[in-house]
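Quick one, T. Sequence first:
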Amino acid sequence: MKKLRVAILGSGNIGTDLLIKIERSEFLECVLFVGRNLSSPGMAKAIALGIQVSDESINGIVKNSEGIDLVFDATSAKDAKAHWKILDKLGKIVIDMTPAKLGVFCIPAVNLKEVLEHRNVNMITCGGQASIPIAYVIGKTQKNVNYIEVVSSIASRSAGPATRLNLDEYIDTTENGIKHFSKVPNTKAILNLNPADPCIDMQTTIFAQVENPDMETLIQEVDLMVKKIQQYVPGYSLIVPPIYENGRIAIMVKAQGLGDYLPKYAGNLDIINCAAIAVAEQYSKNFNTIKQ
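Structure tokens:
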């Protein structure tokens, strides 16, 4: 099978970890790694791997567009909006790693096949990838869900400049993703940056106010969903199965990274990257059927 030719726009932690994951994929080939500073750690890693690099940001993509099928945008929400105007005209498929909310929301365990009809796919947020599949199951199996709240705790050291810059967008996009997939209009997302040393793994708790819950069905469906996610995020696990008390359901999950470029505690970055790779590989498998 001919590999899908991909470019990574953004040479920070997300982009560099994506590069390592792509290097071992049998369906993807990174043909260009793009940033703004040739001396950055990400650029140095790409050069060491023999990958073509550019420090011209989006202009690097434009100059090499004929050899690129898909672009991972691992910059910021603000920049991603400007980049899409250019990449759309070039006819490129874009997997947006930022909370820009331009493309169709994607949770691979829920709607992977549907998003392949679109050229701009948004991976929502790391907290969204961890929590929304569970919120989706709650919405699907329960009646009278009044409210869903998601609380994610990540190691402070795993939150880089782009993450901190996009905190408002993170909250808004995560909440919108929960509403979209769970069909519950009243939602809230909270992100805690934990400075503990040693660093903690990413943990996410999903709360739902539900009247007369069907716990047996919920437990079965949550187990099935966790197994589906583990097919592309091996470090995802259920640490507190569904419980019901004081009128609310509580479920807790954990995401531990693969340790490719980032430490294993940076599961918040790893989970969204693993999800994005799953989408790109499916594009590769179905490339001839994509609606351009």
